[in-house]
Write a structure and sequence with these properties.
Blueprint: H1 5-13, H2 15-26, H3 38-54, E1 58-62, E2 66-69, E3 72-75, E4 79-84, E5 92-98, E6 118-120, E7 125-127, H4 131-150, E8 158-164, H5 174-183, E9 195-198, E10 210-215, E11 217-226, E12 232-233, H6 234-237, H7 244-252, H8 276-283, H9 289-296, H10 306-314, E13 318-325, E14 336-337, E15 340-349, H11 355-373, E16 378-387, E17 390-391, H12 397-410, E18 415-419, H13 425-433, E19 436-439, E20 455-457, H14 458-480
Parallel strand pairs: 5-8, 5-9, 9-19, 10-18
Antiparallel strand pairs: 1-4, 2-3, 4-8, 6-7, 7-20, 10-17, 11-15, 11-16, 12-14, 13-15
Bound molecules: the ligand NCC(=O)N[C@@H](Cc1c[nH]cn1)C(=O)O and zinc ion (2 copies).
Ligand LNQNZP67 binds next to helix 4 and strand 11.
Length: about 475
């Protein structure tokens, strides 16, 4: 069933209001990973809840309790549940998204203030933290609701919503909420859900829409090394004491090589190699080495072979070194020996890897390597958060509905992709509800999520809003077939 013309026209006619809606959301710096910004995440929850209510959605804020971050006990931002429509003759679609964002500072290298939505008239782009990940897509759903409400048009399906404010920090508390909710049976806000749709990733390139049927999992670690009681003068103590930074850098250098091979014994080996048949899937995708170089902003691809680069992201684990807490990083030439440093790294996981089977390998390897250093500093390792990988059946009717919707809006057949990032709650939904989960991305591969100058093209926001709405009509059409 094609989406009605008045819905599509409404979206075209209200572009400016929809962009204003995104601007208001980007202004709220809802960074879940920074304790001082936690009230802003709560403010963003309230804004989103009000938007849903304005268009007839019944909502509920769920208190997720507290958690410990960087040694501080903090209240978790509430999750928002919503529902609209209860027609037994219609399918019920559960929408998930997140309203928190990654940290961003102008000093990181942004060309504009990250929490002001900046419109570039020449390129048709909207710059701002969260524009693509994930405020644009979440508000795309609100735009769909607004259009139907204003046109007094019934939605083609029943909708349920689950929006969270901790996705960028491990989705703390959300798994428990989902499992508790499911136990409530008929009373549950997820009762009767037929499929889940998540718009929180990106096309592979800048020109071909995509449907995504896989995500990598993640295991995130913090290695702590401490020695002196305070920072020391390197002229006074250099070569007299064991230096925590030296120990840490030595350990971090033993995790991954410059070609991306993971050096922790047993981790890469867990994943079976791709056979020729599987390699063809990657060769067939509309992607080139220029695409990876364009989106990375540098000629730094690990290989000249497109299939091997794509497999690196979609079906191989990867280990990335993220940062060192406690290290000197400012301007000037401070001659300090930092007293206490913590290295942060994570491993993106693919089946059959899970945090449960990878963590022991990583922890025991680093403990052994630290012992080999013969250092008198102290060593400890923490797992900050984890999530399992997910792979879905992309021949399901929900994927077919999304394919038809994509062809209707973009006049193109979508790429079928596996995403290198992680949305840990995806597997929880799939397992707890026992239904198919679809990832329907709005943004392009060069949006720069998590990076400086994150953007969303206006055309992706507007056509993406039409795509989300059209998908619902195609799900409804599938119901009748
Ligand atoms: N758009 C999904 C996304 O960005 N997910 C994050 C989740 C995460 C895990 N740890 C910290 N954030 C990702 O990095 O893949
Ligand atoms: Zn996201
Ligand atoms: Zn993200």
């Amino acid at each position: 069933m094609a989406a009605p013309v008045d819905f599509l026209t409404y979206v075209d006619d209200h572009q400016d209001q929809f962009i204003q809606r995104l601007a208001t959301a980007v202004e709220i710096p809802s960074v879940s990973g920074e304790p001082a910004r936690r009230p802003d995440v709560v403010r963003m929850a309230k804004y989103l809840e009000e938007q849903l209510q304005a268009y007839g959605v019944e909502t509920k804020q769920v208190d997720l309790g507290t958690h410990v971050m960087d040694g501080q006990t903090l209240p978790l931002p509430p999750a928002i549940l919503g529902r609209i429509g209860n027609d037994k003759a219609k399918k019920t679609v559960l929408i998930y998204g997140h309203f928190d964002v990654q940290p961003a500072e102008l000093s990181d290298g942004w060309s504009w203030p990250p929490f002001t939505l900046t419109r570039d008239e020449k390129t048709g782009r909207l710059y701002g933290r969260g524009s693509s990940d994930d405020k644009g897509p979440v508000l795309g759903w609100v735009n769909v609701l607004e259009a139907h409400h204003q046109l007094q048009k019934p939605l083609p399906v029943n909708l349920r919503f689950c929006f969270e404010g901790m996705e960028e920090s491990g989705s703390e508390g959300l798994d428990d909420l989902i499992l508790e909710e499911v136990k409530k049976g008929k009373e549950s806000w997820f009762d009767g859900v037929d499929c889940v749709c998540i718009s929180d990733n990106y096309w592979l390139n800048t020109r071909t829409p995509a449907l995504t049927y896989g995500l990598r999992g993640i295991s995130y670690y913090k290695v702590n090394i401490a020695g002196p009681a305070r920072d020391l003068h390197s002229g006074v103590f250099g070569r007299m004491v064991h230096e925590p930074m030296t120990d840490l850098i030595t350990l971090l250098s033993k995790l991954v090589d410059p070609q991306g091979n993971i050096l922790v014994p047993g981790v890469d080996e867990m994943v079976p190699a791709a056979d020729e048949e599987e390699k063809k899937l990657y060769t067939a995708l509309d992607y080139s080495i220029e695409d990876v170089e364009l989106s990375a902003g540098g000629k730094i691809a690990l290989s000249d072979d497109k299939a091997s680069v794509l497999m690196g992201r979609m079906r191989s684990p990867s280990l990335s070194l993220h940062g060192i807490e406690g290290a000197f990083y400012g301007a000037g030439a401070k001659t300090v020996i930092p007293a206490k440093v913590a290295g942060k790294f994570s491993i993106r996981l693919v089946p059959p890897q899970t945090p449960e089977n990878v963590d022991p390998l990583v922890i025991s390897y680093l403990e052994t390597e630290f012992k080999k250093l013969g250092s008198k500093n102290t060593f400890s390792i923490e797992n900050l958060h984890g999530g399992k990988p997910w792979v879905e059946d992309h021949k399901h009717w929900s994927y077919e509905a999304a394919r038809r919707a994509t062809e209707a809006i973009y006049k193109q057949t979508p790429d079928y992709t596996r995403e290198g990032g992680s949305i840990p709650v995806t597997l929880t939904f799939a397992e707890a509800l026992g239904v198919n989960v679809l990832l329907l991305p709005m943004g392009r591969g060069d949006d720069g999520a998590h990076s400086t100058n994150e953007k969303l093209d206006i055309s992706n926001y507007i056509e993406g809003t039409k795509l989300l709405g059209t998908y619902l009509y195609e799900v409804a059409a599938g119901t009748k077939a």
